Amino acid sequence: MSAAPSSPMPAAGPLAGLRVLEIGHFVAAPFCTRLLADLGADVVKVEPLGGDPVRQWGEQRDGHSPWWSMHARNKRCIALDLKNPRAVALVLDLVKDMDALVENFRPGQLDRFGLSEAALHAARPDLAIARISGFGQDGPYRDRASFGVIGEAMGGLRHLTNHPPEETDLPPSRVGISIGDSIAGLYGAFGLLATLWQRDRAGGTKQAYTLDVALTEAMLSMMEGTLPEYGVFGTIRQPQGSRIQTAAPTNAYPTRDGQWLLVAANSDPLFRRLARVLGRPELADDPRFAGNPARLANVGELDALIAAWTRAHDAAEADAILQAADIPSTLCFTAADIAADPQYRARGMVREVEDPLLGPVLQAGIVPHVPEDPGAVRWAGPSIGAHTDEVLAQAGLSPETIAELRAEGTIR
What we know:
The chain has 412 residues and is of the alpha/beta class. It folds into two domains: 19-222 and 343-407, Crotonobetainyl-coa:carnitine coa-transferase, domain 1 (Rossmann fold, 3-Layer(aba) Sandwich); 250-254 and 260-331, formyl-coa transferase, domain 3 (2-Layer Sandwich). The chain is built from 18 helices and eleven strands. The chain has helices spanning 28-38, 66-71, 85-95, 109-113, 117-123, 148-154, 157-160, 179-201, 215-220, 226-233, 268-277, 292-297, 299-310, 315-324, 335-340, 342-346, 388-394, 399-407, and strands spanning 19-23, 42-47, 75-79, 100-103, 128-133, 210-214, 250-254, 260-264, 329-331, 350-355, 359-364. Strands 3-2-1-4-5-6 form a six-stranded parallel β-sheet, with helices on both faces. A three-stranded antiparallel β-sheet has the order 7-8-9, with helices on one face. Helix 1 (28-38) links the parallel strand 1 and strand 2. The longest helix has 23 residues, at 179-201. It is elongated, with a radius of gyration of 25 Å.
């Protein structure tokens, strides 16, 4: 039988009192609801009886994933077999007490379960619904399979995450995280709060909107001037490696100890300071480098001059010199660097969370930081069905009914 712990800490944060039902899997919808839960929302996550697939992602300890520890923190997890009509009826009962529902199934899947928008709004007319999918709820690609990487590619990001084509014939690099899913989740959270504000400012007399967030569109909206530049000039932005296309110098430079140092001295005052650090103050007035257009036109030569200086120093030493000159710079942080960083530690962005399944786990803190009413990491990602009994009891089910549902395999 599943454990039925009470939530160990009361909700805190600006979203305390907001009630959200998540019927999501993998990354996009769960990331959206984690952001809401971090700021105090009461998120009830519906999982299949075998659990969310992310429970099995990444390195494991005794079958438990540290990724899951943060991915599902602050959520109350219940396990239902949505192919069973009794489980669907339970969801509709839960919806009656929810402000919002977040899902990221393929378009039409919830309808096939019996959880269409009409059914959900019949249970709660002012329910806000956030739907996250690969291509959106309509259009010719609606039914195509998709993951975040597909959104990243079609949104234009994957084309740009590489070195210039003349420098490599390797395939475009992945960002390294599920950025497409996470960006879509961010838009889902933002849109959900917007529609709830619209609903509540009408005094509860207005039906909340349904949000339609596509992974492809979420990525495209992040692509800065890529599309306008093509529309006006016909130019196709190309990969720049670690440079940026619009300002120089900004790049990663090699150091004596084999590390990479990021330097962004891409305004005229910053470049003048950098020239002094390099021991070449005359570079600031050199026609090749005087002004951003000239620096961009001669960026290869400029980067070679800066790299000659960084190669003469260890990374930490060079970084300290640049910081003393008030020039934006940093080493490329690894997880170990992040965990030890005093700025992250001081602001609670690296914190130790006690996970009953894993012991102490380092987790990222809460964004945005709200000093007047900060959220909290109330608990780590729970086991499958950890809150099934608690949530269903709050919905009015008796212990006998809950035991019957578990015995027949409807819940876990």
